[in-house]
Amino acid sequence: MSNAEPPPPSAPPPRRRLVDGSLLFLIAFATASAIGCYLAKGPDAFVQALHDEVGLVLRVLPVVTGAVLLAACLQVLLPIDAVKRQLGQDSGWRGLLLATTLGLLVPGGPMASFPLMLAVMGAGADVAASVAFLTSWSVLGLQRVIVWEIPLMGGDFALVRFLASLPLPLVTAYGTVWLLRHLGARKGRP
User: Fold this and answer.
1) How far apart are CA 152 and CA 86, in angstroms?
2) pTM
3) For residue 109, what are the CA distances in angstroms to 96, 123, 141, 162?
4) Tens digit of pLDDT for each residue in 52-102?
5) What is the C-alpha separation between 22 and 3, in angstroms, rounded?
6) H/E element, 27
7) What are phi and psi of 123, to 5 degrees?
């Protein structure tokens, strides 16, 4: 029988504050915009803008809620060891290429992709791999190439634009590594 003590459980990641600088900035900017709208266009335009905003919130809220719920479930379901091995800090080129490929293939808008990436980061993906994923999703997204670029801009344009953009996820990932090293920022979760 061994007398070795089991390793201590890893500490849970620090919880993000509900109210942070970015939320305060958005509230201040929205308030200034509302005041500007009221002063520049009058109360009728302000009420119309408020009405339009409520409609937008009612359309977007279910999508955001579903995406965040999906991300929370994925973070629990994703095998942490596999995510760290495939997309973690020590995954190297292979991890960056996998993240780039996943970003290229994942359909949907930012309301789905950002919560998904947050879940993968919570399961152990490195910041550089996360940057490669989001860059690939936003610049190379295959869904947008097929649905928008080819029909509207033509196949030649879509192919040239896609090939010219292909190195960008890796360039931004390595730029991220460089910035993290030189700015003294911590690696891992933002």
Assistant:
1) 36
2) 0.68
3) 21, 22, 10, 19
4) 999 998 988 888 888 788 777 877 787 788 888 888 888 888 999 999 999
5) 50
6) helix 21-77
7) -90, 0
Q: Find the range with the poorest average confidence among 38-42, 88-92, 141-145, 161-165.
A: 88-92
User: For the chain, what's the residue count?
Assistant: 190
- In 78-167, alpha helices (H): 80-87, 92-105, 110-122, 127-140, 142-144, 150-153, 155-165
Cβ burial of 125 (10 Å; 0-12, 13-18, 19+) is buried
CA–CA distance, 125 with 130 (Å, rounded to integer): 7
* Rounded Cα distance, 74 and 148, in Å: 29
Sequence-ordered strand ranges (E) for 14-118: none
Return all residues near 104 (Cβ < 8 A) that are at least 6 apart. Answer: 136, 137, 140, 141, 142
Spell out the residues 6+ positions from residue 176 whose beta carbon is closer than 8 angstroms to its own.
127, 128, 131
